[in-house]
Every structure is written in C-alpha cells, then in structure tokens.
Design goal:
5-stranded mixed sheet; 5 strands; about 210 residues; single chain; globular; about 40% helix; Nucleotidyltransferase, domain 5; 7 helices; alpha/beta
C-alpha cells in the first residue's frame, strides 16, 4: 500500500482489490500477495521520472471496470493524471453502488475524475499563478455521449443524479472530455488486470524514461 501511494500506479488495482480481505485473508489471498511481491522483484527498475523541462499541460485518463468485484458486483473506478509527460496522481476505488451497465460504470468514474481534476487544477493555479490547460480522455463513447447530452435516455435514466455533476462542469466549460482507444487509456491499469504486453505498454507511458 505504501508503494502504491508513492511510486507504483501500476499496482493500484491489485492492492485495492486485495485490501478488501485484510481483516480475513485466505490462502488464496496470500498466494496473490506473493505473486505481487514476485512482480515487484521483476520490475524494481520502474520509477517515476520528472524531467525538468516538463510542459505545463495536464492530461487526465479515466476508466472503469464493469462488475468485476465478484462478491458485490460493483465496478472499480480509476484515473491517472500527468503534468507534461510526468505522472503526478493516480487512484483506484471501488464504486459505492452497483452500476447497471458499462456506460453507467464509466460515467460514475468520469464524475470522480472530474471532481479531482477541479481540485488539482485550482491547486496548480495557486502555486503557479497561471491557468493549466487540461485534456481529459475516456475510452467509452457512450459515457461521453451521456455527459454531453442533457436529455434522459435509456442509458442515463437510471443513473444517480449525483453523477450528472460531470455534465454540469462540461456545460460550464470547466472541462472537456475526449475519446481515447482503450489500449492507450493509461487508467486501464488502475481498474483491471491486463496482459503482460498491455501492462508493459501502459507502464512505459506512465513511468516515462530518462
């Protein structure tokens, strides 16, 4: 958990998932934890890189898995923020209610990401005394459509009103959401297990290189 909080966004989903069983772990959970340690041993070389000449432009990625908690059938939300090419913030969190569709799960994750984006943007403005442009990417066109469309439809009529916060911020011009292919969505690594190829590809963009 210490590593995830400080330097290893690639473990965000794994540790968040395993942490659910801290109070009563089984042999299966211990086996999974040992696998995490083997992964860490094989990837000790990975570290976050912050180049001195980073461009003052923020990029955010949001993603959600759909119902992949087998005990509660809740989905996981995740985001990754980069300033220039440097990863500065990330999170994985289980959603507070059961989503009825992939679109709804992604829309709920989008709301969480936009809330954090507004907080982070204000903080950077106070520190740097300038407005930081931000690009926010999502890999689900249906969720983007719901965020931009004020009319209720079959995709959105069951979604809790609290998550329409995203639409309000878009209407105010505080954020714009764009599509990114799933294989290029850095937040994928925060919401689900991936193949080795996908993991290596996303980590190369998350961690950067000298």
């Amino acid at each position: 958990m210490y590593l995830v909080a400080g330097t290893r966004p690639d473990l965000a989903y794994t540790i968040t998932h395993l942490s659910q069983f801290n109070s009563s772990p089984s042999v299966m959970h211990l086996t999974a934890a040992k696998r995490v340690l083997r992964y860490l041993q094989g990837t000790k070389y990975r570290h976050l890189f912050y180049p001195w000449n980073n461009q003052l432009k923020m990029t955010a990625y949001t993603d959600a898995s759909y119902g992949n908690c087998l005990d509660t059938r809740r989905s996981f939300s995740g985001y990754i923020f980069q300033l220039g090419n440097a990863t500065i913030s990330w999170r994985c969190r289980k959603q507070q209610s059961v989503a009825t569709s992939t679109c709804e799960a992604e829309y709920m994750a989008l709301a969480m990401t936009i809330k954090y984006h507004l907080w982070l943007k204000r903080g950077l403005q106070e520190l740097l005394k300038q407005d930081i442009p931000t690009a926010l990417f999502c890999d689900r066109n249906a969720a983007i459509y719901v965020a931009y469309n004020p009319k209720l439809n079959d995709r959105s009529k069951h979604i809790d009103v609290a998550y329409h916060f995203s639409r309000e911020q878009i209407d105010k011009g505080n954020v714009s959401v764009m599509y990114v292919p799933s294989e290029e969505n850095l937040a994928n690594i925060c919401t689900k297990g991936t193949t080795r190829y996908v993991n290596d590809h996303l980590c190369s963009k998350i961690f950067g290189s000298k």
